[in-house]
Amino acid sequence: MLVRVIDVETTGFPPDAAVCEVGWTDLIIDGSDIEIRPTLSRLCNPGRPMPEQAFKVHGISDDMLAGAPSPDVIFAEVMTGADAFCAHNCEFEKNFFGGGEKPWCCTYKVSLVAAPDAESHKNALLPALLGITLDPSLAEPAHRAGPDTYVTAHLLAHFLREGIPIEECFAISKRPRAVNKMPFGKHKGMALTELPVSYLNWSVENLSAADIVSAMKRELKRRSVAA
User: Fold this and answer.
1) Cα–Cα distances in Å, from 219 out to 68, 167, 194?
2) What is the pTM for the complete model shown?
3) Which CATH superfamily is domain 2-174 in?
4) Are 107 and 88 in contact (CB under 8 A)?
């Protein structure tokens, strides 16, 4: 099985954002044998100027994207040859790339099950917490699509070698995670119980992350009952 670990860099947060870079690292799973292949990445033209806030995160400028192909061209390349896809918090990637009917693995959700007591479940911090050795020249810089998939691929390989079958990773990834705080956007880190009603309603109508939308709906229902 070829599991393609992907990551996208964007002009911001969905729904008003576009992709400016796609990276991927393939895992070949053959029974107990796991091969991590070299990382690839492609810049792509999002069709809009790069906001300063996004540039400060990933360092991708308008000049770097001049003449780059559209995201659709890169995503067609990403589809070729993959049996499944993987990302760390794959709900974000799925806002931009659905992957057809192929299954997804979310290493973030798997890490919550496999390492519930970890101090952090962030992609950049988990390897050190789990004792995973990485090549710094391939794992950096953070917040670039290629290096981020290199890290995520090693996380997935670690979980597989620890005895979690890939089928179980797929199953875990389908389940909603417990969402108590907004994980991204202008209200990042804020408890759902503190979010404005207008933002809860906007999230339900516009976000595609099923676990977040479900949590927003529960919070709206809780407030309605409390009122």
Assistant:
1) 42, 32, 10
2) 0.81
3) Ribonuclease H-like superfamily/Ribonuclease H (3.30.420.10)
4) yes
Q: Express each pLDDT in 106-150 by its tens digit.
A: 999 999 889 988 888 999 999 999 999 999 999 999 999 999 999
Omega prior to 136 cis, within 30 of 0: no
Per residue in 28-65, pLDDT (tens digit) is 999 999 999 999 999 999 999 999 999 999 999 999 99
Residue 71 identity (one-letter amino acid): P
Give the relative orientation of helices 145-161 and 107-114 as an angle to the nearest 10 degrees. 40
Residues 71/42, Cβ–Cβ less than 8 Å: no
- pLDDT for res 116: 82
Sequence ranges of the chain with CATH classification 3.30.420.10: 2-174
